[in-house]
Amino acid sequence: MTDQNRRQRIHELDVTVWVGKNGIDAVVDELSDQLAERNLVKVKFLRASRGGTTTEELAEDLAEAVNADLVRTRGHTAVLER
């Protein structure tokens, strides 16, 4: 997949995982299942999940928890790949 195709695919992805007040632990299993089905998943971090941390820190922690790579963060959204 070329870099341009990958960027287009990421752009067209819909958010399928939302991290809320219960934190990243609440979505680890669901995200892992989605990554097993498709290799790119877009995750939205709601205000309640962020608390005193940044989206980048939460995204890195979540990627580590599901054994995935953090592809990109933008605003309060992250894309993970396995």
Automatic annotation (TrEMBL):
Q: Which PROSITE patterns match?
A: CRM
Q: Which SUPFAM superfamilies does its entry note?
A: YhbY-like
A Pfam family matched by this chain, by name?
CRS1_YhbY
GO molecular function annotations of the record: RNA binding
Q: Give the matching InterPro entries.
A: RNA-binding_CRM, RNA-binding_domain, YhbY-like_sf
Domain of life (superkingdom): Archaea
Gene3D superfamilies (alphabetical): YhbY-like
Q: Boundaries of each CRM domain copy? A: 1-82
Q: Which UniProt keywords apply?
A: RNA-binding
User: What name appears for this protein in its UniProt entry?
Assistant: YhbY family RNA-binding protein
